Amino acid sequence: MVALDDGARVGGAVGGGAGGEGVLGGVGAAHDDLFNAKVARTSTPIREAAPVDTVTLKDVARAVGVSVMTVSNVVNGRLDRVSPATAARVEAAVADLGYVPSAAARTLVARRSGLVGLLLPGRADAASLLGSPHDVAVTGALEAALRRHDHHLMLRGVTTAADVRDSVRRWGLDGVVLMGFTDAAVAGLDLPTTLPAVLVDAGGPAGPTQARVGSDDLGGGRLAGKHLTGLGHRRLVLCGPADGTSGVVEARLAGFRAAASAAGLPASAVRVLDARTTYGDGVALGSRLAADVRAGAVTAVLATADVLAAGVVRGLTDAGVRVPDDVSVLGYDDAELARQVTPRLSTVGQDTGGKGRLAAELLLGLVTGDGAGVRAATVPVALVARESTGPAPG
């Protein structure tokens, strides 16, 4: 928001334009002088806002009639050192006076900053780090869960191990959550062994201060394959980041192939096309697939994200191919987008909000030491059939 200079704003309203023309055009300089003099006499000078008084522990202690240490014990949760009646009086005074604990002071006492870093792959194109509906949903749930535990989320794009170390040192992070990285990329970040970290949708071995959150990707791939083969489809495509670097995509592909095999289809019935999980890549891919659909070489497509599936539908539709009459398209995630496009997307739903909440719980457990035995959590998946899938043509 741009703040306008008060003097410029008043002058513009009075003058009405260059040379005093406009609203006051034709009125003489004497009238201008008279008007300005009246404004000067009746206007109240604008004063700078007085600084807000900071309520301290001493103020609360004085109001209750107890020691500063007693107030500190209550504020910092050491209630075993204070009687319930006194704690209640202190808490009432804290609320009445509007006392807010100093973040810097609490950091010194607890040796924790209350800051958690959400680290995502840095982007050279200056685009948003949260480019997918999946990431937005996980981030929203993560932030809300951390906020309930008096922690704050800091978003940062990183590409190297040095970026991670700089973020932790510069901001004094209690821990980090990593999302959107391939397994190889996580290994390349060389996370400090003492740093509490939760990896979302990344495989590989976990260190002593690391935990993992994901969905049942193998089961999700199976659900997708069972749904499409159950509709009679025999020529299938899976599209997504299928270059072998993503354990998530590999698991979904394995489940998809297993379902196709269980339906009696040969391995050649499943084609794999590499694509980024963006709407634009989906549109381009849909345009290219149109000829294969017309030739009968493809009857159903599984996209590894709803945003990619939506793009595929648009590309096919723009090329004159009907969804689902000519080809079925199945997404993954059950993001809000799946219910907003036409036709509404059939999809494999996963609890993205649950991923965020679990990531917060696991990380806070690592930070405090309360969750030392818990190292992994998995959210369930479910098939959501809508309008973009139907029986195989002909």
TrEMBL record:
A Gene Ontology molecular function term for this protein is: DNA-binding transcription factor activity
Q: Name all HTH lacI-type domain ranges.
A: 55-110
Q: Which Pfam families match?
A: LacI, Peripla_BP_3
Task: Enumerate the InterPro entries for this protein.
Answer: HTH_LacI, LacI/GalR-like_sensor, Lambda_DNA-bd_dom_sf, Peripla_BP_I
What keywords are assigned to this protein?
A: DNA-binding, Transcription, Transcription regulation
| CDD domains listed in its UniProt record | HTH_LacI, PBP1_LacI_sugar_binding-like
- The name on file for this protein is LacI family transcriptional regulator
Q: Which organism is it from?
A: Cellulomonas pakistanensis
